[in-house]
Amino acid sequence: MMQMTKNTTYWICQFAGWTAYCLNDLVIHSGRFGYSNGLLINAAITIVLGISVTHIYRHIIKKYGWLDLSWSQLVPKIVSCVLLMAIIMVKFFILLDFYTVPDIQQHITPSSIIFFIINWGKLLLLWSGIYLLFQYFERSRKFANNQF
């Protein structure tokens, strides 16, 4: 049996995770607003944008050596990036929704925008936690193997 590389595992997890999130979101929004092709377009774009934004984020983590930082140095960077990514996602999808799901316009208020940012922030913080924990477990495993 062929063993998957870490890179292959990463891409499978990216695609599976974002697809699962979008399918769940599609079901919820279809129940609330009724199914439309616009919702399906949003789901497909969310998969692509979610993978793209988090992949760029992963690149930043690796490029600037964030995995080598202490938790007190790492946490503010993670929180800042998660907030920035959440705002980017919300801005993009509010604009997209005006074209793909016109009925949603009446639900866009300042308080809903804050709610959307918090929800995207939770999702992106979860992504960060999973990614960072995986990286730390990998490093621990490598360190333990090198000890023997």
Explain how this protein is built.
With 148 residues, the chain is mostly helical. The protein has one domain. The protein contains 4 helices and no strands. The longest helix has 38 residues, at 110-147. Keywords: Membrane, Transmembrane, Transmembrane helix. The chain crosses the membrane at residues 39-57, 78-101, 113-134.
What is the molecular shape? elongated
Count of structural domains: 1
Mean model confidence by pLDDT: 90
> How many DSSP E strands?
0
Helical content class: over 70%
Helix and strand element order: HHHH
Rounded to the nearest angstrom, the radius of gyration is 18 Å
- Provide the β-strand percentage band: under 5%
Q: How many alpha or pi helices?
A: 4
The biggest beta sheet reads:
none
Care to give the gist of this entry?
The chain is mostly helical and 148 residues long.
Tags for this entry?
148 residues; mainly alpha; 83% helix; elongated; membrane; transmembrane helix; transmembrane
